[in-house]
Amino acid sequence: MSSGLAIKLATLFGLWAAFTFAPSAAQATAKVICYYDSKSFVREGLGKTILTDIEPALPFCTHLIYGYAGVNGATNKLQSVNSNVDLDQGKGHFRAITALKRKYPGLKILLGVGGGGDAESEQYLTLLESSMGRISFINSAYELVKSYDFDGLDLSWQFPTVKPKKIRGTVSSFFHKLKKPFTSDTVIDEKWEEHREEFTALVRELKNSFRHDNYQLSVTVMPNVNSSVYFDIPAIINNLDFVVLGAYDFQTPDRNPKEADFTAPLYELPERNPESNVNYQVQWWLSQRAPATKVIVGIPTYGRCWKLGEDSGITGVPPLRTPKEGHPEGLQIKVPGLVSYPEACAKLPNPSNAHLKDDQAPLRKVLDPTKRFGTYAFRLGNPDKDYEFGQWCSFEDPDTAGNKAAYVRAKGLGGIGLFDITLDDFRGSCSGDKFPILRAAKYRL
After folding, report:
1. Using CA atoms, how far apart are residues 414 and 286, in angstroms rounded to an integer?
2. N or C: which terminal CB in the chain sees fewer CB atoms within 10 Å?
3. CA-wise closest residue to 233 among 292, 157, 195, 285
4. Using CA atoms, how far apart are residues 180 and 200, in angstroms rounded to an integer?
5. Distance of CA 314 to the CA centre of its chain
């Protein structure tokens, strides 16, 4: 073969390889939004998370959202909800967080607002209702972002959440549909139209104040907030860098104390609320002209657990009837009804719990071969003791997180958001790998 022909063939092969194996523009710029809740500082024991604990996650993240700042109800100003931890006159964590950019120069660090961190939610609506209140908020937000060298702000606005809906069978669903036009659901916010317009104004005015410094502005749609009520998507989307959909916690022990079910399914399950899944939430935003590249799918790093009783059945297949009283809690986070991924992992069969009984006995894990709904695990309990110690948990794991990331890639969406990295296995206790949920999702992107 002549050298000229060889060069031409090599050149053609190189072009073919570059075209074939290079990621698409959407894949190359996919965002990985990592949420970091500052409350993890004050946890005790193995649940406590400090800055050095999260550093192994940062090479996988494009953005870090530090939460949460809140709203001062008296002044409408943005403020730290834990000034002794965050501000310079305290432990200076705002400064320590943004200093991480020097070590990870590609990382954008945003300050999160709200996110359920404020005990009082009414002040978020009150602020919107006053133009002076919005100005006070915007000025204080700009000052905080600039003073502490954040790259922008994320509005995890605390709008009222929708009421939980009972999981119904086919017949009862039919009659409910007949009744609904006459009875309707209880209106949770009588001034929702005003609040939607006022939130649109807040986003526009906030973006205008940020534009000169090129600060980013994003919105996180909190779980169970009705997007069709509070977000005028065509009016706000051009003023936002991205939107993260909190498409999880559709069912929780607090919202659904008598029914256990998948908490964050990817697709609709039979005889369920058709809106309570990731795909519905995504498709609704796309139908409202939100660019796919600005839509981020939120993925939890934890699970929800219910107690089981004598009426729960023996199959473990959801939905399950559950006792109303009490929800189990993990040993690390110690929040009733919530387990971090390492806590969920520790409940599954392993050498340390193989011979344990009662409330320490392992749970049976059930996989999802359809890749549509999620993983769950359960323990039926002791029938001789009124089914005491029965438990059912729906949780995210590396496989299900990877499935959601694959969905994001297939749909050409903007990326994923991890809620939050302190509840992932940051110590590597499950498999030896630190942050396995974050890693699995990142690799599938």
Report:
1. 12
2. N
3. 285
4. 30
5. 31
How do 63-71 and 31-37 pair as beta strands? parallel
Residue 390, amino acid: G
pLDDT at 42: 78
Which whole-number Å values give the CA distances from 276 to 262, 284, 291, 316, in the listed order?
10, 12, 22, 20
- Least Cα distance to 69 among 106, 94, 51, 49 occurs for 94
What is the dihedral sign for C-alpha 177, 182, 183, 185? positive
Q: Tell me the C-alpha distance between 152 and 213, whole Å.
A: 9
pLDDT value of residue 387: 83
Look up residue 134 and give its two tokens.
């919005």
Q: What's the pLDDT score for residue 28? A: 55
Pair of tokens at residue 288: 């409202």
Q: What is the reported pLDDT for 167?
A: 59
DSSP class of 388: B
Q: How far apart are CA 164 and CA 357, in angstroms?
A: 34
Q: What is the average pLDDT score of the chain?
A: 88
The stretches in the chain having pLDDT less than 50 are 1-27, 169-185
H-helix or E-strand spanning residue 339: strand 338-340
Structure tokens at 27: 């894949």
Strand spans (E) along 73-226: 78-80, 108-114, 152-156, 216-221
The C-alpha atoms of residue 36 and residue 420 are separated, in whole angstroms, by 6
With residue 364 as reference, give the H or E element that holds it: strand 364-366
Cα–Cα distance measured from residue 397 to residue 344, given in angstroms and rounded to the nearest whole number: 9
Distances (CA, A) of 117 to 66, 120, 231: 12, 9, 21
For helices 278-287 and 398-411, what crossing angle results, to 10°? 20
**Can you list the positions of beta strands (E) in 165-294?**
216-221, 242-245, 259-260
Residues forming a β-bridge with 366: 376
**C-alpha span between 366 and 317 (Å, rounded):** 9
- Return the amino acid letter for 184: S
Please check whether residue 391 is in contact with residue 308, taking contact to mean a CB–CB distance below 8 angstroms: yes
Write out pLDDT tens, residues 251-295.
999 999 999 999 999 999 999 999 999 999 999 999 999 999 999
Q: How far is CA 296 from CA 91, 230, 283, 419, in A?
A: 32, 18, 12, 12
Contacts 24+ apart (CB under 8 A), 171-179: 173/271
DSSP code, position 61: -
